[in-house]
Write a structure and sequence with these properties.
The chain has 337 residues and is α/β, with parallel strands linked by helices. Helix content is 52%, strand content 7%. Strands 2-3-4-1-5 form a five-stranded parallel β-sheet, covered by helices on one side. It starts with 8 loop residues before the first helix and ends in a 6-residue tail after the last helix. The structure holds zinc ion.
């Protein structure tokens, strides 16, 4: 089994309660970084397990569990964008960019799977992750499958953005929210994982304990570098900074998140006199937000959300980095040096 997080205790119980009468389709929804995929994989394994434990969890010992762990269970399909399924080896071959969407072909390929009876005589399980990655054709193809329920077949849809799913799909799913743990619970968990300064790390990760775990030392040091530059916009050299970020392979989406958090705090300090993501840098944020016009801040935030939509296929990351830093300086009305 994958890791079981303490903050999933309640939702695990609710899932176990469904075991006697499984819905045809289950929707796990909640913010990204709450561990929904691990939860869904564990549940899928438990549904396929041939000797589940008293609490409903998978036994981790039967042949079914063994295949599941080897990612070769004949009655299980994981549907995800190619970009997520990529292994380290195939990433280096960037001749063709992997798809970030779930395609209609991936969903149609399920037809064979759902027409066969289960190899092991039990359930067949399809996990779609993340469900909002389905393009319209794929979503319509899935809808067709959901409209004609097969016996002993379970669809598990996992989504960070249920509002991006077709209402007709939503209405066919048994929906289950998966909440992010409280700040206190997150910090306690990160402490158990031996993370230094868990409160700070958690804020840097946008309050997801799992993303906080994933923050590498290197990424944390790039983040510090960017923060230092944002605090001193008068001295910022956007070209040099963009070059450094590029050489360290910082993802555009990562820089956009850092800037969004920083701008959030600039606005929050101005309007509500408090900061959320950078409690230790409040003085600098205060100094910068003093002369800041709300209009300029909103303009910057809009620019960031547009950049976020396009971040997965920017023309050239370095140019994007430069233009975002330039926009930041412009927001603070600092003339190009
Ligand atoms: Zn088992």
């Amino acid at each position: 089994m994958r890791e079981q997080y303490p903050w999933h205790k309640e939702v695990r119980q609710r899932l176990a309660g469904l075991r006697t009468r499984l819905p045809h389709a289950l929707l796990l929804k909640g913010a990204q970084g709450a561990g929904k995929l691990d939860l869904a994989m564990n549940f899928a394994q438990s549904v396929l397990c041939e000797q589940p434990l008293a609490g409903g969890e998978a036994c981790d010992a039967c042949p079914s569990c063994h295949w599941f762990q080897q990612e070769s269970h004949p009655d299980f399909r994981l549907i995800q964008p190619d970009a997520l399924a990529q292994t380290e080896a195939s990433v280096t071959d960037n001749s063709k960019k992997p798809a970030r969407q779930i395609t209609v072909d991936q969903v149609r390929a399920l037809a064979d799977f759902s027409n066969l009876s289960a190899h092991r005589g039990g359930y067949r399980v399809v996990l779609v992750y993340p469900a909002e990655a389905m393009n319209l054709n794929a979503a319509n193809a899935l809808l067709k499958t959901l409209e004609e329920p097969q016996g002993q077949m379970l669809f598990i849809l996992v989504t960070h953005k249920p509002q991006h799913l077709l209402p007709t799909i939503l209405s066919r799913c048994h929906s289950m929210p998966v909440a992010m743990p409280s700040m206190q619970a997150s910090i306690a968990w990160l402490e158990q994982q031996a993370i230094d300064d868990p409160a700070k790390r958690l804020a840097q990760a946008g309050f997801s304990p799992l993303l906080a775990m994933d923050l590498t030392e290197e990424s944390a040091s790039e983040h510090e570098k960017v923060l230092r530059a944002l605090m001193q916009p008068e001295q910022m050299d956007e070209f040099e900074l963009a070059e450094q970020l590029k050489s360290k392979r910082v993802e555009p989406i990562q820089l956009i998140q850092w800037l969004q958090q920083w701008c959030y705090d600039l606005g929050s300090l101005k309007l509500a006199a408090k900061v959320r993501y950078h409690p230790d840098l409040q003085d600098s944020i205060c100094r910068l937000s003093n002369g800041l016009a709300m209009f300029d801040l909103l303009k910057m935030q809009k620019e960031l959300s547009i950049a976020k939509r396009e971040a997965y296929h920017p023309l050239e990351p370095k140019l994007l980095f430069e233009s975002l830093f330039a926009a930041y300086r412009q927001m603070l009305r600092i003339r190009a040096s």
